[in-house]
Amino acid sequence: MAKFKDNIVIKVRAGKGGAGAVSFRREKYIPKGGPDGGDGGKGGDVIIQAWQGYYNLGHLFKDRVYKAQNGGFGMGQNRHGQDGQDLIIKVPAGTQVLDAETGEILADLVNEGDMVCVAKGGMGGKGNAFFKTATHQAPRFAQPGMPGQERVVLLNLKLIADVGLVGLPNVGKSTLLKAITNAQPKIADYPFTTLVPNLGVIERGERIIKIADIPGIIEGAHKGLGLGLSFLQHIERVQIILFCIEAIDADPLYTLLLLKEELSTYNKELPQRTSMILMTKSDMADAAALNKRIELLEKEKYTVLPISSLTGYNTDVLVEKLFSLME
Ligand SMILES: Nc1nc2c(ncn2[C@@H]2O[C@H](COP(=O)(O)OP(=O)(O)OP(=O)(O)O)[C@@H](O)[C@H]2O)c(=O)[nH]1
Ligand SMILES: [Mg+2]
Fold first, then answer.
1. Nearest atom in ligand 1 to 213's CA
2. pLDDT (tens digit, 9 = 90+) per residue, 226-259?
3. For residue 189, which atom of ligand 1 is closest to its CA?
4. Which of 145, 169, 143 is nearest to 259 (CA)?
5. Disulfide-capable partner of 41 in 81, 222, 249, 320 (CB 3.0 to 4.6 Å)?
6. What's this model's pTM, rounded to 2 decimal places?
């Protein structure tokens, strides 16, 4: 499997235009034929397009030059050179395309099929036939093709998920993702098992919910502690945030505020998203103590759902809720 990559710099070079031809008609019994050099073909463009077959940028190679085809030369008998083929580079939906030198955002490829031309192919040169005039019957020159555009491009992926799982390390985020989606994330009994975001999908006929499992966040993550916050870019576009807090957490309100605080240092607006609190691993908690914690959170107007990915408790209720929230 390709390595997970959420940003990469590549170089792109569009095709050079083909040169126009210098050629004169040669036919038997016609000693002095006129000019018949055709135009060169246009160089191919480099296009970047969103495609659902990729979840990250791991298939691309850093600093590699991706080249489109050059245009063909013009030929005698007024034959036009062939246009160079475009090069289409496929990336996952959610990829932002930036000019790496200026930082300008060239496109935000949000939906499947969205595309942007990042380097235009050069125009083909005109053949000598083009330059024939009444006073200049036999031009012996043609244009060279124009060079193709070159650019250094930064690709930056923001996974397009509908729902994001946010929580301290080891609270069972990945286990939940595995329980309710098709994803097969790594799960283990130690913090920071998840090093890169996982994306899982719940399908119900035509309707699909995409869920992103984000690496664990700890207090001070905005200062680079733990794995930091850079992965939060993947939940910038989610509609629903599920705060995952262990059912045995002695102070869930404190944990919640900590998580929200870290989110807001990344993006002020994130803590205001529609959200729900999941009390994970509820099978491990004492029922009375858990109820107290839930009451405490509900008093603060939070929606709370105790779940257990181990026993399956309330996971179906959660899925129902997500589908209705997404309506
Ligand atoms: N008893 C019980 N254990 C659980 C449950 N869900 C997860 N676990 C266990 O908790 C541990 C951590 O689970 P993970 O899913 O890897 O936790 P995570 O939040 O993804 O952790 P990081 O990726 O490190 O942030 C594993 O040993 C799981 O088996 C649950 O519902 N009940
Ligand atoms: Mg995990």
1. 20
2. 777 777 877 888 899 999 999 999 999 999 999 9
3. 27
4. 169
5. 81
6. 0.71
